[in-house]
Amino acid sequence: MRKIKVGLIQQANTEDVQSNLEKLSLNIADVTDKGAELVVLQELHNSLYFCQTENTANFDLAEPIPGPSTDFFGRLAARHGIVLVASLFEKRAAGLYHNTAVVFDKDGSMAGKYRKMHIPDDPAYYEKFYFTPGDLGFRPVRTSIGVLGVQVCWDQWYPEGARLMALQGAEILIYPTAIGWESTDTDEEKSRQLNAWITVQRGHAVANGLPVVAVNRVGHEADPSHQTNGISFWGNSFVAGPQGELLAQAGNREEENLLVEIDMERSENVRRWWPFLRDRRIETFGDLTRRFID
What pTM did the predictor assign? Predict the structure, then answer.
């Protein structure tokens, strides 16, 4: 039986990048000491979520890949002998930046990367100001522990990306995330948003017969412009099995490290029971590439 232990690190950040990195290092050590072979970090974990405002000075947070952060996380992956999924603000060239997930293998080498494809532009989430949409496609990353279908945050709402990863052999769907509530929303609206976020990703697990790992940040981060009351990141990092069953879930207020064992052979059985890939009518799906069907 093939099983792997996955560590999820749900962390609150400050404006001190070095302090955030030190905390990440300690949290990675915590889950690996308990047996984690795969560790997944939240979106843009080095800093505060800077996209609450449009400020050109924030581009100074970006780094080339490879660069200082890939050196740092590569060393951690090698030290602990883990596969590590990190989320970085990539400076590709002057004026060209991406929101990029980087996967490190157990020897510290970069196994692959994914550039966020879907870029939101909403109040307090002004990501189009910072990030160019990804151009690497939905390509899973092959590692020593399996094939990882890594996407980033806003991508998690779209079934197409999950399906394309599955069709190329992804064995786990992984989503580093930064999402939360604005304080003026009612409790009922907050509940609807959170439940929708969990439900759509559990749907990806069911539709593709694959486990899903979603790691969100937690804690309140103020809006530097004071136009909003900031974002309270809702945590709730979770792992779902290939039938959408919740295997583990963090809370919505506290920092938390989760350690979850995933049975990598279960997907094979689930896909035998529910052969969705077999029964897809692919010859009728051409219109999915259209923006809207008038």
Answer: 0.97
